[in-house]
Design brief:
- By secondary structure, the protein is of the alpha+beta class.
- The protein has helices at residues 47-50, 89-104, 120-145; strands at residues 13-23, 30-37, 41-44, 56-58, 114-118.
- The protein has a domain at 8-69 and 108-137.
- It has three helices and five strands, in the order E-E-E-H-E-H-E-H.
- A five-stranded antiparallel sheet has the order 3-2-1-5-4.
- The longest helix has 26 residues, at 120-145.
- It is elongated and about 80 Å long.
- The two termini are 49 Å apart.
- The model is unreliable at 62-94 and 98-105 (pLDDT under 50).
- Residues 72-95 have a biased composition (Low complexity).
- One of its GO terms (cellular component) is endosome.
- InterPro entries: Vfa1.
């Protein structure tokens, strides 16, 4: 059994946003979030997976992992109640409608680009996929080196 070849990238991915939706690598739902390691390895993943500590952790500038959750500023939290200054129900309903329309629009609340460290099992699956792609490329290049099938028929046999 041969030893696994070392992979040319480290377990540090940048979170970016793509222009088109693609299926999530984990659950298959359409997403624009991409975790990438330069041009060597990339995969689409939902924003919820990036917050899951069993999937990845947010990496700080010093290279150590921290909590995967962004710091809470308190501005984005809602309790479902009308603000204290609002007393009329129609004004509160209009405010809720504008909040709902704002929630459907893509927002830039993500710290893009942010660095993430994948969980060891997830990273080993990514490394296995990378190695398999390299094996397929090597096999294709070896097949290209083989001689081609003769195009002319063989001469008749002499008896």
């Amino acid at each position: 059994m041969q030893a696994a070849a070392p992979i040319p990238f480290k377990n540090l991915y940048q979170r970016r946003r793509a222009a088109t939706d693609r299926p999530c690598w984990v659950c298959g739902k359409p997403t624009q979030e991409v975790l990438t390691h330069s041009d060597i390895d990339f995969f689409f993943t939902c924003a919820n997976h990036c917050q899951d500590p069993g999937f990845c952790t947010l990496s700080t500038a010093s290279g150590t992992a921290s909590s995967p959750f962004p710091p809470n500023t308190g501005a984005a939290t809602t309790t479902g109640r009308a603000p204290a200054g609002t007393t009329s129900a129609p004004a509160a309903a209009a405010g809720q409608k504008s909040d709902e329309s704002a929630a459907t629009k893509p927002t830039a609340t993500l710290p893009i680009p942010a660095s993430y460290v994948l969980h060891s099992r997830i990273f080993s699956m990514r490394a296995a996929e990378y190695r398999e792609k390299q094996r397929v490329k090597a096999k294709q290049s070896q097949l290209g080196a083989l001689p081609s099938v003769p195009k002319q028929p063989l001469p008749p046999e002499r008896t």
